[in-house]
Design goal:
148 residues; alpha+beta; six-stranded mixed β-sheet; 25% helix
Length: 148
């Protein structure tokens, strides 16, 4: 038996008609989201001469992830894992601050990777994510080891 996949559609994060990817899928209780960037907000800010820093870009991206998970039937605390790609590893503290501000004390697992470049030169941050709609990280409990 095959589990049905549902393509996630959100007006806040529309699929581009020329894209060769999908923003996200819901498969059962799991949600998988493609890497999101701050584009087009980053491009618009750069054109005004007001480039968005890593913190601002991360907040834009986290809101996109939230919009996609919400469209799939969940909320931000269903996000269980992210992979953060930075063009400058020195931005890690600003992205960490954005994550704390966005998630509070209930942060998902995360991997942080420095990359040479992203698709547009003004981009500093890209994040992809996994969520489970049957999990709320606000209810997470410590798992104590039974080993001595």
């Amino acid at each position: 038996m095959t589990t049905l996949a549902h393509k996630i559609q959100s007006p806040q994060v529309p699929d581009l008609p020329t894209a060769s990817w999908t923003n996200g899928y819901r498969i059962g209780q799991e949600v998988v989201v493609s890497g999101m960037t701050g584009h087009p907000a980053t491009r618009q800010a750069a054109e005004r001469g007001e480039a968005l820093g890593a913190y601002e870009q991360a907040i834009v991206v986290l809101k996109k992830l939230e919009a996609l998970v919400t469209a799939a039937g969940g909320h931000r605390h269903n996000l269980i894992k992210t992979v953060v790609y930075l063009t400058d590893i020195a931005d890690k503290d600003e992205v960490g601050r954005a994550r704390r501000d966005f998630f509070g004390e209930h942060t998902p697992c995360s991997t942080l990777v420095a990359v040479k470049a992203l698709v547009f030169p003004e981009l500093r941050v890209e994040i992809d994510a996994w969520a489970r709609l049957d999990v709320d990280l606000r209810e997470a409990q410590p798992l104590l080891s039974t080993e001595s």
